[in-house]
Recover the amino acids of this structure.
């Protein structure tokens, strides 16, 4: 497996609920860890969340939806970004699980990059 849509979604859910955890994962997680061959929506959500957190802003799922909608982007399969983000916000996760999810996602990124080089 060289990607994990579920891990991406779980990490986003954790960051929406516990943005303060970004301090721990920010040094090693970035947009490239979200495989745009699967979906650009996760990468976009992460990018907007990251920018807000780094600028000291807290975005709940409504604010995050508004920020992304203001970009005027459309996503594959006509994903309703508001419903998608609300579903992420409803996922269960704990602050402790976010760090391990981020590490697992980074490991997949490293494997994906290795395969691309071969």
């Amino acid at each position: 497996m060289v990607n994990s849509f579920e891990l991406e979604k779980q990490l986003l859910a954790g960051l929406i609920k516990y943005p303060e955890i970004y301090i721990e994962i920010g040094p090693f997680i970035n947009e490239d860890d979200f495989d745009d061959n699967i979906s650009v929506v996760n990468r976009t959500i992460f990018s907007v969340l990251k920018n807000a957190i780094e600028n000291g802003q807290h975005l709940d799922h409504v604010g995050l939806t508004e920020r992304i909608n203001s970009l005027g982007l459309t996503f594959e399969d006509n994903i309703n970004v508001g419903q998608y983000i609300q579903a992420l916000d409803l996922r269960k996760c704990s602050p402790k699980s976010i760090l391990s999810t981020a590490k697992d996602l980074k490991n997949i990124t490293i494997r994906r990059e290795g395969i691309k080089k071969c």
In short: The CA atoms of residues 14 and 97 lie 8 Å apart. The chain is about 65% helix and 0% strand. The mean pLDDT is 93. The first helix runs from residue 5 to 17.
